[in-house]
Amino acid sequence: MTEAATEARALDRGDALAPLRDRFQLPLAPDGEPAIYLCGNSLGPMPLAAPARVQEVLEHWATLAVRGHHGGPDPWMHFHERFAAPLGRLVGAAPGEVVAMNTLTVNLHLMLVSFYRPTATRHRILIERSSFPSDRYAVVSQLRFHGHAPQQSLIEVSPRPGEELLRTDDLIAAIEREGEALALVLLPGVQYLTGQVLDVPAITRVARRHGALVGWDLAHAIGNVPVELHDACADFAVWCHYKYLCGGPGATAGAFVHERHGHGTTLPRFAGWWGHDAATRFAMGPDFVPMAGAEGWQLSNPPVLALAPLIAALEAFDTAGMAALRAKSLALTAFARRLIEERLAGRITIVTPAADGDRGCQLSLRVVGGASRGRHAFASLSARGVIGDWREPDVIRLAPAPLYNRFAEVERAIAVLETALPPS
Fold it and tell me: pTM of whole model > 0.85?
């Protein structure tokens, strides 16, 4: 056994969060042994309690039928409400600022309806050039819907020439440069390709000072890094629940609306029945009266079967606490980084920032020698039971998640990479 493997076993023995792994069903490797699952940044594994949670809903449907909306142990009328508090703890929201609904891009469009209100002089939207494609598609379509050409109204900030990562100073400079022409800033809490954590409070503060509204895509941040949306005074945020939150493929998503907008506001929105004031919803009146808070952006009643698995995952987060998860996450990625630097110097470059505050669970790796060599290394990982993911044009993403990953798995994954990439 190597020195690193011995160290990894010792770290696992001292890991207070180790029992959480037993709450998850991890996939098998080609040899039938448990795989090393480092892909929770794309799709989290299934909580073992998820089938039981779904089965409970099915049984209530079978035995209660329509009466399940108002009766039984967990009435469906209020099912979505149980998610607000645990999700709020993960994103640093005040009561009433979070709702579980729809999917991420649907929620983004709903937020843009309310928070992108261009004028003749203030109509530009600032994003980062390597934004997740769905975000860019949504923004461009909204610009065109409002009659603005992306060539004039879309501001895209890139890393500096020869660099991989965004600089906070450059984002702030772009905001200040656009000034009164800037209507909205939309950025990721964690950049999906590089794993870089952006400075939510600092960027939000500067944008609001210049009169722009600010939204955050937290798809790769929620359940990964601490976020304090309320204190940062973000206007809105959207996210999915199928990555680090292990809510299942295509899981119902979430949204945040700061309380200054969600109570007694006259913001324009696309209205739906479930966003109507709950006290008079069943009066079936013709005029829409929004609920206070983020719930007022709901369209339809919640998909109860799709939400049920998320209960099990959120129970695990609440058991651990975000502070303990974050500490373990940083230890896992620091361990992985050190092994890569020791064993694979000159063969792998790490794109993700090294500083603790600038990274989450994910390490983005680029194989020296080009994309074809990178694909070969990625295929070797897969063949040996290490499940990560490949992102074009040439990035391998490995994300040891503190809920279910072990230090020994990190060591084994790097050992497989070392075998796949012998010294030249």
Answer: yes
